[in-house]
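Go through the following before class.
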Amino acid sequence: MSRILVTGADGEIGRAVSESLVAAGHRVTALSLAIAADHPADRRIIGDATSRDDVAEAMREVDAVAHFAAIPHPSLGTPYDVFRVNTAATFNVLTRAAETGVRRAVIASSINAIGYPNNPHDTFPPSFPLDAATPPDIADAYSLSKLADEATARYAHRRYGIDVVALRFPLVKWPHVLREVADEVRADPARMAREGWAYLTMTDAVRAVELALWTDAAGAAVVPLSARDTLLDEPTAELLRRFAPAVEPPIGVEGHHALVDLTTARTVLGFEPRESIHDGTATPYPALVRSDR
């Protein structure tokens, strides 16, 4: 049994991860700006991940960290606030964890770290599938903050030796919400073309976090994630032909295959997506399926 600090613990992913960890027999310290009364953590701290004092209090007796505290979208703050809060929180949490002897952290990066989904210019990635080597083109503060967070993970490992996995989440929601988003995107598929219509169910996202917490991989790894298919039920090759004709497509793409390369997820985490919103395999809210470890 381990004690895990979950920051942003009352957000969507943070709460789902907390519930799954507690169900697995671990102790959870929750750090969040607000925490609902029914949160499963046995230790709850109302605090700010950018505060050295709050994070120091939260870090007591912690074995590993799952860091989700952030402003999660560029529309939820000024560019200055989005960048400041996100980067300061990640720097603070990782450095404080390392200084107190924590050897493993997982942070929430984003598919936005490549910059294309929220880019105000008409720019596309040079090729699919998207992976950790996709060259970024960043013109918004949120995407910049996520790329900076990945650099902070490399810094923390190099400076202190803490091992960090940065999970590049795509759109992550419970299945009923993903289906609602799919209905909206189906009316205008171009709106998600630059991120390859990528998504991940909440249960698969939680499983990726748990695998990242227990992996023995050393260093600072950037791990792109996705379901095995796209959010839309149209063949992937047809979506690319219609909405990203100038982008180099994957060789031999067929069916509804995802446009995010999962090689790193497989090799570093042993992660394979299990769920799709299209075939009845997705776990509905609030049930969770934990990874077999």
The chain has one domain: 3-172+202-226+259-269.
